[in-house]
Amino acid sequence: MASSGSRSFRLAKFAFKVGIGVGAVYLTVVEGLWSNSTNNSGEVYNKVKATFLPQLNQAEKMAAEDRLSNLRDNVATEKLKEYWNSGVNSVFFGLKNSPEKINDIIKDSLK
């Protein structure tokens, strides 16, 4: 048979666990997490985020700045590709037409 100290320790441990669970549910109900309003849920999210996760706000800002920076880099890269491809096309177009142009220049100089 278990001693009364062991039994009361197990009972206290169980009561503590139940208290944590009940407290968590109570807090979410009081804060309106279980309401049907979508606006209220957003407010609860922002409140929890501001209270418990200030680092998350900073991380979100940094991620947004990184995305903006990457977008700028991508736009610049795409413009560079367009200019490069345009230059390559012009060079090869000129090489393709060079025999005809040279022939025209020679004919004009002989006239």
Automatic annotation (TrEMBL):
The keyword ATP-binding does not apply. It is found in: Mitochondrion inner membrane. GO terms for biological process: cristae formation. Pfam families: QIL1. InterPro entries: Mic13. One of its GO terms (cellular component) is mitochondrial crista junction. It is a single-pass membrane protein. Its main location: mitochondrion. Keywords: Membrane, Mitochondrion, Mitochondrion inner membrane, Transmembrane, Transmembrane helix. Component of the mitochondrial contact site and cristae organizing system (MICOS) complex. Belongs to the MICOS complex subunit Mic13 family. Component of the MICOS complex, a large protein complex of the mitochondrial inner membrane that plays crucial roles in the maintenance of crista junctions, inner membrane architecture, and formation of contact sites to the outer membrane. This is MICOS complex subunit MIC13. It comes from Trichoplax adhaerens (Trichoplax reptans). The lineage of its organism: Eukaryota, Metazoa, Placozoa, Uniplacotomia, Trichoplacea.
